[in-house]
Amino acid sequence: MKYKTGFVYLLLSFFFCVSCMTKESEEKTEIWNKIVPFFSPEAQFANIYGDYRSPLLFKNGQKVKTKEEWFKRRQEIRVDWMSRMGKWPPIMTDQVMKIVKDSTNELYDQYKVSFNWTPTEKTEGYLLVPHKKGKKPAVISVFYEPETAIGQGKPLRDFAFQLAKRGFVTLSLGTSETSKNKTYSIYYPSIDNATMQPLSTLAYAAANAWEVLAKADDVDSTRIGIVGHSYGGKWAMFASCLYDKFACAAWSDPGIVFDETKGSGVNYWEPWYLGYYPPPWENTWNKTSDGSQGIYSQLRKDSLDLHELHALMAPRPFLVSGGSSDPPERWIPLNHSIAVNELLGYKNRVAMTNRETHGGTVESNEQMYLFFEYFLKF
What we know:
The chain has ten helices and nine strands. By secondary structure, it is of the alpha/beta class. The chain has two domains: 1-37; 40-377, Rossmann fold (3-Layer(aba) Sandwich), CATH 3.40.50.1820. The chain has a nine-stranded mixed sheet with strand order 1-2-3-5-4-6-7-8-9, with helices on both faces. The relative contact order is 0.14.
């Protein structure tokens, strides 16, 4: 009798597991059917590569023909960009977040946390942990300050809050103090003597945030993504491209390539991005790159562009949530990342959605959330 009872229990458990797997598979398929159109360029942009130099060409002009050659070329790209932007200090892998304050609601626990994101600077942010038990996917959200992403700022930029409601652990970060004093970034070791371009320093800070988040008990370290809008979109883009441990990324209208015609929305020449020079600064928030300092002008002179960094994502998936800074013709530089993924044997790794406005919409945000659900939840 005990044998029969045990057998029935195992049989019921088996059917329960099959049922859960079937439901999960159906949910994944449903999400994929919603996002699959985002992975195909409009016909007028398909297989168009423009004047962007192919990432599949070595610096000496030799063409990359195999996966093994791509990994050598990939390293060449990364070394070139990092040498220009400044060497990172060692990644900090041995720290844990300090809980400053905590609260809870019916959906998740919220913690105000502190940790070092550079060797000389601590930051504070917000960790949102859904009540569901077990290891969960996670997303780091970056912006000017951490309050907006948890729902305490402009509407439709509450990425951490919305993703937490969907079952993701989220970590919201921002450069609060520098946003107040209008220096807008992180400067290592100091703003008067920075050894890295600030946008690369932001990426380094996000890499350290990945390491500290990966140690959280509730987080599955193989499923951590990053998201940001505008300034945060640039930050998320550089972080995910330069730090391989991010599983995927969504960049909301950052300006994914250099484009002086877009004015201050794609202002990589500013001293808090790729145009660093010691303050005092003059004529910031320029609509043109005239008189820019830092490395921006040299990058342009050498015909380098950000599509090379995009290629470092392969085969990790990314979504460009394009607005006024990233219109549909941005598929032209994105086609180069598609080509790299095809060489590696992957499809549907490069996606873009489009809207007319710079700010996100209910629809464009939903598209990002579905992207993260598909690539991180299952």
